[in-house]
Amino acid sequence: MTHVVVDPVTRIEGHLRIEAEVDDGKVSDAWSSSTMFRGVEIILKGHDPRDAWAFTQRICGVCTTVHAITSIRAVEDAIGAEPPPNARILRNLIMASQMVQDHVVHFYHLHALDWVDIVSALSADPAATANLAQSISPWPLSSKTYFTSIKDRVAAFVERGQLGPFGNAYWGHSAYRLPPEANLLAVAHYLEALDWQREFIKIHAILGGKNPHLQSFLVGGMATPVDPDKQASLNMTSISAMRKLIQQAKTFVEQVYIPDLLAVASFYKDWAGYGAGVGNYLVYGEYPETDGDNAPLYLPPGVIRNRDLGTVEALDPAKITEYVTHSWFDYAGGDDQGLPPSQGETRPNYTGPEPPYERLDTNGKYSWLKSPRYEDQPMEVGPLSRMLVAYASGHPRVQELVGYALGQLGVGPEALFSTLGRVAARGIETLVLAEKLEGWLDELADNMGRGDLRIHDNSKWDPKSWPKDCTGAGFHEAPRGALGHWVHIVDGEIANYQCVVPSTWNAGPRDAMGQPGPYEAAIVGNPVADPEQPLEILRTVHSFDPCMACGVHVLDPHGNELVKVRVQ
Amino acid sequence: MPEARDWFLEELQRRGVSRRDFLGFCGVMTTVLALPKVAGAKIAEAIETKEKPTLVWLEFQDCAGNTESFLRAGRPTVADIVLDTLSVDYHETIMAAAGHQAEEALAKVVAEKPGGYIAVVEGSIPTGANGAYCTIGGRAAIDIAREVCGNAAATIAIGTCAAFGGLPAAAPNPTGALSVADAVPGVKNLINLPACPANAENLVGTVVYYLTFNRFPPLDRYRRPLFAYGKSIHDNCERRAHYDGGQYVEAWGDEGHRTGYCLYKMGCKGPVTYQNCPNVGWNEGTNWPIGCGHPCIGCAEPDFWDKMTPFYTHLAGFPGFGKHSKVDKVGMWATAGVAAAFAAHGFVQLGKRWKHKELEHQQVYQPPADSAEPVKKAIKEGKEGDQA
Questions:
Q1: pLDDT tens digits, residue range B28-54?
Q2: What is the model's pTM?
Q3: Which residue of B has its CA nearest to A48?
Q4: What is the rounded distance in angstroms from the CA atom of residue B99 to the CA atom of residue B319?
C-alpha cells in the first residue's frame, strides 16, 4: 500500500490537497483537504448589506460574478426589493457568458493537460493533423500550414530549454492515449482558446466595466444604464458589439470545443467507468425567464438520488445541513451534529499538524471546508448535476444534445455517471447556454425599443425603507454548481452572513456518519499506474473543476429559519 | 543576443504579427508607461534582445482574480509574445505539474538562481494559527514567501491583498493576514500593484519597463509605480466636466445616469483613489467601472474595504462642489482636506465595526519591527501618494 499526497493540486482555483491510499494500482481510500481560510463572512458583519456583493465577489476571481449575484439576491430577498425586467436580462447575460467563458477555460487550460501530452505533439504529422481537424469540424483554422506553424512554435519553445509552466509535468505517462496528431490539434486549440477567452470576456467589460470583478451590480437592479439615444448608456453600439461576441462564442463552442471534447473522449471511453462519486445530484436551477418570485427557470431545479434518472425530487433548502466533524471548526453544541446554514456557526479551530507537515490526521479534523449534506446525504453539484436534472426533467435541448453526445461515443446513459460524463456534461451545458445568449440580448433590445429603460428598484435603495430586522436567502447556479447565501440584517447592517458554496458540497470532508464527500468518493477505484505520478487522480479531481477559495462560515446564535427560495 | 532576436522576429512572423503591428504595440506601451514616444523604439529593441528572465508566481490568500486579469492581458497576439519572453517557471493556476513535482520546480528556481528571478505574489499572507490558515505542500505561506521573495531580484505584489493585506486583512482580520511588505522583512525591490484585481496593462507595463531600462519604475510612498498610480481617478475622469458643472447622478437609471453625469453623489471614491483606469481602461480598453455607470470603490488604496465603505455613501467634507466652485480649489480639497476628513471617516467606520466583532487570534505571528516600515507608516498616516 502506498500513501499518495498531491499538494498543491494545480490548475484549479485555490489551495487543495488530496491524500490517497493506493493498493495494487488502484485508489482504495481518499481524503480531500482545503488548506486556506480567510473568514470573509466574519469580515462582512456590521457592513452595509448593499456593499456585500463587492466583498463576496472576491471569494473567487475565476468564477467572478457568482457570489456578487447570489449576495444581491439574498439582500433583495431580505429587504423586498424587486429588480425590473432589464436587470434580470442583464444578469442573465452576465451569468451565462460567465458560464460559457469559464467552461471553455476549464476544458483547455485547467483540464486538457490531464488528457493531452504536449511533448507527443512534437512528433505529429501536420498534414495528418489537418485531415483529422477537417474530418471533425468546419473550423477554418485547419490547414497543414497552420499546424506546421504550431508544431514549429512548440518545438522552438522546447528547444530553448525553458519549459516554463509546462516543466516537470507527467509527459510520456502511460495513461496518455491520444495519437500525436490529436495532441497537436489540442495544443493549437489551447492557444486559440487563450485568445478567444480574452476577446469574449469583453462582453463583461461592456456589461460590468471590467473583468474579473465586474462593478455594475446593485441591490435592486443594475448600475448599467440602458438608452438607445445616449452615448453613456448601453445602446445600439454596445448591443451590436455584444451580438458579435456572442455569435463568435457560439461558433467557437460548436466548431472547436464540442468536436475536441468528443474526439478526446473517444480515446478515453474507459473513463466512463471511473469517478462516479456519490451518485446524488443537487441543483438550485438558474436563468429566470420572467420576473417575480416564482419565475420559470431555463435550467430546472431538483434532486436526483442513487443515479435514478426516473425520479427528480423537488428541492427543499430547509433540508440542507452542514457538519464540522472533520473540519477545523467547532460547534457550540458538539461537532457531531449537522446545523442548517440559517443557524450555522463559524469558529475556526485549527487542530491539524503545525506546518511544515507531511501528513494530515485524516481520522480527526483535516480541512477548512465543512461537509454540507441534504437530508444527511452527500450531494454532487455542478454541470453534471444540472444536465442530469434537466435531462430527467425533459428539457428538450439538453435531451437532444445528451443523446447526440452519447450516440457519437457509442455509450449508454450510465456513462454519464463518471469522470468522462462530468467533462461531457460541462461541454453540453456550454453549448446550451451559448445558444441561449442571443435571445436575451434581443429581449433587452426589444425592451429598450419600447422605451422601458428601468434598471433599478429605487423604492428600496434607502435603508430607512427596510424592515428593522429581516433575513433573506439567495440562490444561484455557478459554473461549479449550487451556490447559496444567507443574510440576516438588523438596523440596516449585516448581523450574520453565510455562504454554502459549490466546492464545499463537492470537496468537503467526511461527515459525522463517516460518509465521504463527492471528490473523496469519486477518486476511490481510480487506477494509478505510477504513485509517483498520480495523473489519474488529477483527472477525476479536475473533472469537478475545483474552486477552493471558499472555506468560510459564520455564527449566528439567533439564527432564523430561511425557507423562502427566490431566484431573480 | 542575436539568437534571441532572430527567434523573436521569426516568432512574430509565425504568429502573423507584422513588425509594424509590433512597433504599434510598443507605442501603446509608451502610453501606458507615460513615456515619451521615442521610447517605443527602445522598448522594441529591449524586448527583442533580452533573454527570458525567470518569473515565479505565488498564490496565498487569493481569489486568483489577478491571475485571471493577467490572462486577459491586452493586444493578445503581441502582448502574449511579450509575456513569452518571460519563463514562468511556477504558477499554480496554469502550470502542468502538480504536487511535489510542482514544488520542486519552485525549489529549483530558488536554489539555482538566487537573486536572479522575479517573484510575483498574489493574495495576503496569514500569520494566525501558526501559519495553518494557508499552507501549500504542507508549508506555511509565510515561510514560502520569505524564502522565495527573500531570494528574488525583485518582488511584485499584485493586487490589493498582496500589496496592502486587502480583503482578508479587513477588520477584524480573522486570520492575521499581512501584505508582502509586512510579511517579508527586508524584501528587496518590492513593487506594489494594488487594485482588485490589478490591471493587466500595469503588470505588463512594469515588466516592460524593467526589461527596457534595466531598473524599476519610480514609486510613490506606497511603492506603487507612478506611471500607473500617479494621478487620481477624479483628475482624469471622463465625467470631470459634469462634476465641475454641478451635474450629478441623483438616482440609478435617471436622466443624468443615462447621460453620463458625475457619480460623486452616488458614492464615487475617484477623488481619493490613485490609478490610471480612466486612461488605460480594462479588457484592452473596452470599458471601466465609471464608464459603466457605477462609482469607483477605491480598490487601489490601502484598507479600502474599511475606509471606502459604505461604498454608496458620498465622501464627507467636500466643500463647494458644483457650479460655483473653482476647479483648482476643488482639486486642492480633493487632495488635502478631503483625504483627512475621509481618513477620519474610515476610522469611525472601523471603530463602529470592531464593536461588532471580537475575535481571538490563536498564536498570532508578530512581524518584526523592521519590515517595510515606510509603507506601514504611510498607511497609518492615511496620506495619499506623492505627486510625481
A1: 677 677 766 666 666 666 655 556 788
A2: 0.90
A3: B310
A4: 57
